[in-house]
Design a protein that fits this description.
By secondary structure, the protein is of the alpha/beta class. It folds into 3 domains: 8-190 and 197-252, Rossmann fold (3-Layer(aba) Sandwich), CATH 3.40.50; 257-365, no CATH class; 455-671, 3-Layer(aba) Sandwich (Rossmann fold). The protein is built from 19 helices and 28 strands. The strands form 4 sheets. Strands 3-2-1-4-5-7-6-8-9 form a 9-stranded mixed sheet, with helices on both faces. Strands 20, 21, 22, 23, 24, 25, 26, 27 and 28 form a 9-stranded mixed sheet that branches. Strands 10-11-13-12-14 form a 5-stranded mixed sheet, sandwiched between helices. Belongs to the methyltransferase superfamily. Pfam families: Methyltransf_11. Residues 53-158 form the Methyltransferase type domain. GO terms for molecular function: S-adenosylmethionine-dependent methyltransferase activity.
């Protein structure tokens, strides 16, 4: 039976609905749920004494259910003669007070202020099928007629999917009138019919007619947690929340089946008392069925940026190691407190079963996994806003049973630790037996400047071994300061090196000096400047440097080249760097991209400018350290000379030595 329109514009055609109801006959057709799913909202806003207009009633059983449950002053209108005759005949004897009238909702004959409430279940969505001029004109006419017929204080209740174009026009129209807006998410029970296809969540929009009051802030509210009403600052926040709820609904439907290929689904869970997500979840499915069906993995605080938890490949490796068909990886977000694993388990247990795979028994006990029993702890240190990089936070993180680290994180890219430093507690008191764990961070700490937090920094430092000699004064330009971990390490380990660090953002310089103990001196000079212009200026003055280090991240989210920004690997700039370097001088470049073709393109450009090039790939890390030189005098330094690397490694900490020893230094690939 062909009951759906072949073109969406037919929804607003009277001829379509005449044909529809003739085909449908006496079988009720329910748009967006039935009375059991709607009664909570209906009876919350409509009382038995109210006179209620039901627009676009169709042959739905909703009005008869309302009538039988005490709401008997019902007037039903529809554009279809057929359905009005059907409904009048059906209810004439059993429900004599209920009226059915053929009427166009865009041109009603009722007097002004006649109704206490107007109920629309799907009519708006049927009319607002596009944003074409005639369609919007019809919808505006309906809104205006409803507003005219409602009494002051009356409620206009709209049951809708709130698709983007519907939501946009609805909110705009009634915001202009200054009416309070409240949105409820309706809980619909899954049925066999809607489980076979993607459906959308259903909302109830409650609009209250008030007198226009100039300069009166509009009331905008949302009900996300049963009867809890949250007031918002504006309709833009309401739109964002509606999109989140729509996304979660669709995600749940996706997860009712096994995820295809290597697809992973991410979502966020909010608590009732905060707009900041409490948990971030990623669902990972095994490519093949496994006997153990479902588990939750809690990532300790402070470890969420590690490869194992922050990348698709890492999470897939974690899922394979855990041995469960579906693993939900849970990040504990900053801005919230977490008591212990049992408290997290109690909080999540009721929600996670919504994410279980289809063959997981509904009443099965879901195991919660983690690394040890330590959930980690965060201690905010400082926060602010950089004009260049947006809001940031400096926080101390305690992981692995007491190791303390300080981190700089820009909140626009929360998954990336901009800078990390290991902290050492000063005058640490010995813990007495039975003494409770420390509540907050240590009172006195200092930055461990001999610590390099990442393998790519280790590789960059070791790149000094490619210089013809490291036993004489060395001049270095560093573009990109961050928290100053690299120059601070060089400052302590290689007193013969003079570093000029160039940083575009003065806020970053302040953070490095105030919170990461960066101490400029005659061997470490800080320049607040544009790195491109700084290098070109040195070249123009005829200056030379032994080393140029490029370690700048891109501030543009979603670009394939996350480090450095594309301008730093253009041939023009690379040529300027080559001119700046002394004979045998070294370019050390931090290159980060998940797109191998982008990496190869950058490497080709470097090779087109420099005589000798090498790269250090770091396995699971997306960073590649690129080394390049132009050597014209036949000096002894070259990338094939591993002895020079060994010389540098012995002067560095064990971590640097172990990284290269584990790789046998063969990962330094020569680019012929």
């Amino acid at each position: 039976m062909d009951l759906l329109p072949s073109c969406h514009s037919e929804f607003s055609s009277p001829d379509y609905w005449e044909s529809f109801f003739k085909k449908r006959g006496k079988i009720p057709f329910e748009w967006y749920g039935e009375y059991p799913q709607l009664h909570h909202v209906i009876h919350k806003y409509i009382s038995p004494s109210n006179t209620v207009l039901v627009v676009g009633c169709g042959n739905s059983a909703l009005s008869e259910n309302m009538y039988d449950n005490g709401l008997q002053n019902l007037v039903n209108i529809d554009i279809s003669d057929v359905v009005i005759r059907q409904m009048s005949d059906r209810h004439r004897e059993k429900r004599p007070k209920m009226e059915f009238t053929r009427m166009d909702v865009t041109a009603m004959s009722y007097p002004e202020g006649h109704f206490n409430a107007v109920l629309d279940k799907g009519t708006l969505d049927a009319l607002l099928v596009s944003e074409e001029g005639q369609v919007l004109q019809n919808v505006n006419a309906m809104f205006s007629e409803v507003a005219r017929c409602l009494r002051l204080g009356g409620r206009y209740i709209i049951i809708s999917l709130l698709q983007d174009h519907v939501q946009k026009h609805l909110l705009q129209f009634f915001t202009n009138l200054g009416w309070p807006i409240r949105v409820h998410r309706l809980q619909m029970e899954p049925t066999e019919e809607n489980s076979k296809s993607i459906s959308m969540p259903v909302f109830a929009v409650v609009l209250t007619k008030l007198k226009a009051m100039p300069n009166m802030p509009q009331i905008v509210e949302v009900c996300r947690f049963e009867d809890r009403i949250d007031r918002l600052e504006g309709v833009q926040y309401l739109s964002a929340i509606i999109k989140d709820m729509q996304y979660y609904h669709i995600v749940r439907q996706q997860l009712s089946k096994r995820l295809p290929g290597d697809q992973q689904v991410s979502l966020e869970l909010h608590s009732a008392d905060s707009d900041v997500p409490r948990y971030s979840l990623t669902v990972v499915d095994s490519p093949s069925p496994l006997p153990q069906k479902f588990a939750i993995f809690i990532v300790p605080q402070g470890r969420q940026t590690e490869w194992l938890f922050s990348t698709d490949k890492g999470r897939l490796h974690l899922q394979d190691s855990a041995g469960f068909q579906r693993l939900v990886v849970v990040i504990l977000n900053r801005g919230h407190s977490f008591e212990n694993m049992e408290a997290i388990k109690a909080e999540l247990s009721g929600k996670v079963m919504e994410l279980a795979p289809p063959d997981c028994p509904r009443k099965s006990e879901v195991p919660f996994l983690s690394i040890g029993e330590d959930l980690g702890r965060r201690f905010p240190v400082s926060e602010g806003t950089s004009p260049a990089s947006g809001p940031y936070i400096v926080e101390d993180v305690e992981i692995n049973g007491g190791q303390l680290f300080r981190r700089l994180i820009f909140l626009q890219t929360q998954g990336v630790v901009q800078t990390e430093a290991r902290l050492i507690e000063v005058r640490k008191k010995k813990k007495r037996r039975g003494q409770p764990a420390r509540e907050g961070p240590p009172e006195k700490v200092k930055v461990d400047k001999g610590y390099l937090p990442s393998d790519y920094l280790t590789g960059m430092v070791a790149g000094l071994g490619f210089l013809p000699s490291i036993d004489k004064p060395i001049s270095c330009v560093l573009v990109g300061l961050g928290g100053g971990g690299f120059p601070s390490f060089i400052q302590g380990a290689f007193p013969q090196v003079t570093v000029e660090a160039v940083e575009l953002d003065p806020v970053v310089v302040d953070i490095a000096t105030n919170w990461f103990d960066l101490q400029p001196d005659d061997k470490l000079k800080i320049h607040v400047a544009d790195g491109i212009e700084f290098v070109h200026g040195l070249v123009a003055s005829g200056s030379k440097r032994d080393v140029v280090v490029i370690d700048v991240d891109s501030k543009e989210p979603g670009v394939p080249l996350s480090c450095p920004p594309a301008v730093f690997v253009e041939v023009e700039f690379l040529t300027a760097v080559a001119k700046l370097l002394t004979d045998g001088g070294i370019l050390i470049l931090n290159l980060a991209s998940r797109d191998d073709s982008v990496k190869l393109d950058v490497l080709e450009r470097v090779r087109s400018v420099f005589d000798q090039c090498a790269r250090l790939d770091l396995g699971e890390d997306i960073n590649t350290v690129v080394f390049a030189t132009n050597q014209h005098s036949g000096g002894s330094g070259c990338f094939g000379d591993k002895h020079r690397l060994d010389t540098v490694l012995k002067a560095m900490n064990k971590k640097i030595e172990s990284v290269f020893r584990d790789s046998n230094v063969d990962v330094v690939e020569m680019m012929e």
